[in-house]
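Input.
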Amino acid sequence: MKNKKYIILILCIIALFSMQFVSASDNTDIDVLADANDNGILLAPTETQSFSNLKDVIDSAGDEITLEYNYKYNEGNPQTGINITKNLIINGNGATIDGSNAAALFNISEGVTVTLKNLTIQNAGGVYHDWDAQTVTAFHAIYSEGTLNFVDCTFKDSNIDDWSHPNVNGSIYSTGDINIQNSKFIDNTIATCGVIYTTGTVTLNNSYFSENKASSKAGAIYAGNIPLIENSIFESNEGSAVYISNENSVTSVKNSTFNSNRQGSYGFTERGAAIYTNGIIDLIEDSVFSLNWAKNGSAIYISNENSVTKINNSNFTENLAQENGGVIYTEGKIDSIKDSIFNNNMAPIGGVLYTKSVNMINNSTFDNCGYYTDTSKGAIYITGSDDLIIINSTFDTCNAGEGGAIYTHGGVSLIDSKITGCVDDSYSILTKGAVYADGDVYIENTTITNNFAKEGSAVYTIVLDIENL
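Output.
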């Protein structure tokens, strides 16, 4: 009898533990599902519906929708775009909207804010030929008079380029503001200017622009104003990657990369292959510019004479200009260049810089920046008469006909610096100085060696003051 009681007691204990294990397992499953939902982990749509279905969803929506299908334009669907007249968030949930290169997507009304999230837009916009009516119509992918936000989106393969419609601006055309966050714009083609074209303001962070093409001005973005370009990459865009039209705009560039922007595979953009601005660039920091080609200002062209630019901790490599400004051409001034590297940049006038003035260069390196002709001038070419101060910096193998390293109409102070090899032995074309200055030259604790010229191989100037050379 006692044995029976023990057995019953043991069975009860086992049953109790089993219930606890099941309960714990159930709770774990619930927690995992809750975490997944909290983190927004949803499955992308796999089925595809038409633009007519998408219009119905948008027309009947409140202020936010989550797409449950992919959508594709088919003949007979609304071709001129879905009108959005209310504030709306469209969460794509990984969906794709495909315009079949034949239809507009959205028309956004003035005063309305539309946010596109987690969405791929492809083949949107296009040029439609009605052969019976003998008419041709160009459709922007998106037309906006309001505010348009892209968050975690991909916009690709839009093609609005046709011999019969040569003057089209913007796959995305806007008269309002556009905000871009964590998004990609890839392999889009526009007949004239700007995959994104707006007369308003663009804000830009952590985004990627590649292989966007235009025949004029901007390949990727044409905007009235861009206050900040941050954590973004522009590569292999045709035309200027970024074109800023407003002369009152002020732009900072931080932690961004501009690589291989030019006109076609071997062509030269007219001005500023990476950035052209009618406004001001106040800061370039922690950024990389490489392999950009333009006739003037291969990487950056600033047309505003009031611009004053600071350059910090940035790298400029193998940029090429056919005429002036191997890296930067500015009608304004360079306030300072600090902790930066310039390698293998070329232009006949100003292998690195063509500018009105440079106040200070500090702790920076210029290596093999120049051009091998007897009429070329200066890795740094300064048109004005303000004085330049160079501290703890190196110019190595910077070649030009006059002023291999520096050509200025003002004065120069060289402190704790080094200028060496500013002509190639096989050419020996330097006519006037590794440093050419119309003003006074002051030299302190500086090495100037292995430079060759017909006149003043080290320094060509009127007044020279040397201390601890």
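Residues 1-41 form one domain.
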